[in-house]
Design goal:
432 residues; alpha+beta; D-Maltodextrin-Binding Protein, domain 2; 2 domains; five-stranded mixed sheet; three-stranded antiparallel sheet; globular
């Protein structure tokens, strides 16, 4: 993706001068579903604001540090955008290195207090030392998706997974998944009950399920080796070991991460997976590519029956990078996008939830399975915003990759996270 988009990016930035009537917006959502949702917001804004034109430029996603490098280079060279889409939990890190404009000069002039209009977890994620460096856009939650047809084929009654029955345990999920597994004539899997590390089955998801905190505020230390995180990664390690790591990797390469695959060839939609952990945005993809799919959503599995349901919520935000040519126009566009009209257009098209309190009671946004995801917010946690958030995510991802391939031990992988990230955090301690 980066190879394809970079020439477009450089072309859009080259020889760019200040134009009070143009806002250059770098957009990370470029697939058929999310891209159209963003385009609808941009078109609506441009129509209502004839004195200002938003120019949308496609760029690669930015959850990891590596994908923000292009922005950093452009900002330093004076060719960055006016508006950028940033994963909200990374705002603190990129604000701390001076990449983002402090929005307080604009926010302080608002007639109503913006902080009171957004869900607290979303607003808190955009703050650094009490100042907002982004405006929150969407919220999300993770759940366990199950393909009812696949379950029935394996002799499993899907009704046992109805949310009214509460969450199942991880051991129960593994037992159900094992019944679904099917090996082909070549000895490789042609169907799996679940792969415990694809989709949203991430280090953070499993960590949250087991009760991991990720950071200790009193000591100003990250806690990747805390018992909850160790238990989570040991569970993934053992699960994959039982399946055979290399055979699972072959399955993933064939049916999940194959670059030639289209969204319509998703293994869950096409009966190759019985279960997957995913977010509410997946509902829109299923509706588009497999509208007749017989599936359900339920709570994430829990370690044991004594545990309450758990999930976690993230989302994106809009920021003004340093050296923006039109920061005032950028803020106008951001306020529209993250305001009631913009959030509603985006939520309807993308399938995620809004962060504005005023939209949480809008029934048009929470029909069908979406209603379940809105209920999940009652059990939801959020990531701790740190000056090393993106770095921590990257290192936890590297650790999980070692775990899923059974390289070394989970404890060794998580110890490496601490050694690589904690020294970078020290310069900011104590956090204010």
């Amino acid at each position: 993706m980066a190879v394809v988009l970079l020439p477009l990016l450089l072309s859009a930035c080259s020889n760019r001068g200040a134009n009070p009537h143009e806002v250059v917006y770098w957009n990370i959502f470029n697939d058929d579903v999310s891209g159209k949702a963003v385009q609808a917001v941009v078109d609506s804004f441009n129509k209502q604001n004839p004195d200002l034109h938003v120019k949308m430029v496609p760029v690669p996603p930015n959850i990891s540090n590596s994908n923000v490098t292009t922005l950093i280079t452009a900002v330093r060279g004076g060719t960055g955008p006016d508006v950028y889409f940033l994963d909200r939990f990374t705002v603190n890190q990129y604000a701390s290195i001076g990449l983002l404009e402090d929005l307080n000069p604009w926010v302080s002039k608002e007639k109503e207090k913006l902080a009171d209009q957004f869900q607290p977890f979303a607003w808190n994620e955009v703050l650094m030392q009490g100042h907002p460096y982004a405006l929150p856009l969407n919220a999300d939650a993770r759940a366990l998706f199950y393909n009812k047809s696949v379950l029935r084929d394996a002799g499993i009654d899907p009704e046992i997974l109805d949310p009214k029955n509460g969450p199942i345990t991880i051991d129960e999920l593994k037992a159900l998944a094992t019944k679904i597994n099917k090996v082909g004539p070549d000895g490789n899997y042609e169907r799996l009950g679940m792969v415990p590390y694809i989709g949203e089955a991430s280090h953070t998801t499993w960590g949250m399920i087991y009760g991991a905190k990720f950071f200790d505020d009193r000591s100003c230390k990250i806690t990747p080796t805390e018992p909850a995180m160790l238990n989570a990664m040991n569970m993934v390690y053992d699960w994959v070991k039982e399946l055979n790591p290399s055979k699972v990797a072959t399955f993933v390469d064939s049916y999940v991460s194959n670059p030639s695959m289209t969204p319509a060839q998703d293994p869950f939609m096409n009966g190759k997976l019985g279960f997957k952990i995913d977010g509410d945005w997946a509902l829109a993809s299923i509706a588009k590519y497999k509208p007749n799919l017989d599936y359900g959503v339920t709570y994430l599995p829990v370690p044991d029956k004594s545990k309450a349901p758990a999930t976690w919520s993230g989302g994106f935000s809009l920021v003004i990078p340093k050296n923006a040519k039109n920061p005032d126009g950028a803020y106008r566009f951001m306020r529209y996008f993250t305001g009631p009209e913009g959030q509603k257009i985006f939520a309807q098209g993308f399938g995620s939830m809004p962060t504005l309190k005023s939209l949480m009671n809008d029934k048009t946004l929470f029909s069908g399975k979406r209603a379940f995801f809105s209920e999940l917010l009652n059990y939801s946690h959020s990531r701790v915003p740190l000056p090393v958030s993106a770095t921590l995510w990257d290192e936890l991802t590297s650790a999980q990759e070692k775990v899923q391939y059974n390289i070394g031990t989970p404890e060794e992988a998580l110890q490496s996270v601490y050694r690589r990230v904690q020294p970078q955090l020290e310069q900011y301690c104590p956090l204010k």
